[in-house]
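Hi V.,

Quick status before I head out on leave. The structure for the redesign project is tokenized and pasted below; the design run finished overnight.
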């Protein structure tokens, strides 16, 4: 049985906010809370799709191993996201591995409850459908980027997406809201650790990114990254910018509030 804390956390998530207290209690039937320490695996690629989940707190990393043995990071899971939807896609096994980036809490329902869950809560079924559609769209976008963008553009776009999804405003800029390594960025962008390290070092010297703590990245000038992506024309002094002094970020790169 789920705890009162789970009820409170669900109530604060946009996904469950429209539900009445009675509907929320019904949705929690059969749910089991799971606490994952950093590095712990929720499920592995190829494992039977026995559960579906909602992340309540923390951050998870979704990875896949390709047929030639290369590991890629597919996406990150943030609070309020549904994941492990193999049952919704008619798949018997999970197509990827999900592991905790930091201490995380999620709720797990047995896959056998999926039909009842979606029939009783059409808005949650619609949210799951939207989630799957968004993931397909994101996959297509990444394929286009791999085909058309150079490495610098791919890394810039990836950092902007992460900031848009999880960014935390600080006095130094916008902090990506979870620990992330340069190897992680390489796996997300189809490049090498050496290339990512070179780019981030260059951007740090130019004042575009900051962050001295281990596994933390702060964007000091999202506008400069947007220009690298080709979102807006580059200005003459962009290469030397130390902040957003050369223009407010475009809507696609706006700082989160």
């Amino acid at each position: 049985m789920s705890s009162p804390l789970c009820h409170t956390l669900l109530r604060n998530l946009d996904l469950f906010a429209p539900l009445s207290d009675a509907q929320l209690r019904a949705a929690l039937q059969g749910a089991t809370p799971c606490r994952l320490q950093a590095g712990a695996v929720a499920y592995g690629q190829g494992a039977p799709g026995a559960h579906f989940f909602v992340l309540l707190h923390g951050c998870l990393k979704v990875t896949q191993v390709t047929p030639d043995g290369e590991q890629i990071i597919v996406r990150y899971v943030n609070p309020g996201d549904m994941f492990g939807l193999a049952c919704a896609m008619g798949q018997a096994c999970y197509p990827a591995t999900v592991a905790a980036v930091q201490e995380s809490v999620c709720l797990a329902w047995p896959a056998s409850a999926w039909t009842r869950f979606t029939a009783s809560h059409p808005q949650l079924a619609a949210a799951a459908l939207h989630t799957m559609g968004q993931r397909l769209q994101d996959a297509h976008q990444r394929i286009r980027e791999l085909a058309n963008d150079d490495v610098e553009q791919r890394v810039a776009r990836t950092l902007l997406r992460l900031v848009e999804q999880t960014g935390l405003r600080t006095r130094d800029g916008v902090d990506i809201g979870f620990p992330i390594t340069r190897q992680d960025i390489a796996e997300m962008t189809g490049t090498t650790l050496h290339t990512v390290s070179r780019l981030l070092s260059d951007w740090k010297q130019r004042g575009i990114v900051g962050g001295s703590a281990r596994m933390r990245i702060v964007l000091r000038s999202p506008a400069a990254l947007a220009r690298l992506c080709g979102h807006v024309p580059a200005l003459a002094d962009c290469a030397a910018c130390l902040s957003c002094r050369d223009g407010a970020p475009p809507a696609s790169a706006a700082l989160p509030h």
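Above is the designed sequence. The radius of gyration is 20 Å.

G. will cover questions while I'm gone.

Best,
W.
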